[in-house]
Structure prediction request, 64 residues.
Amino acid sequence: MKWLKNFISDIMSRATSRKFLVLLLAVGLHLNNPIGFTGDNLVWVFGAFIGFNVLEKFTGVVQK
Prediction:
């Protein structure tokens, strides 16, 4: 049963990761307005995510 607990914990940590949440946000925005939210907008969403990660690493705010 320990493997099941570890598996569920791993799935939950992946599902709540910032990358996954950004992906869900982008897909949700596209599904909400497929014509208005294009691949160009997706580039901006991921660019903001990467920029935030870089800023976080430079400021040393990352906590584990």
Notes: The chain has a mean pLDDT of 77. DSSP finds three helices and no strands in the chain.
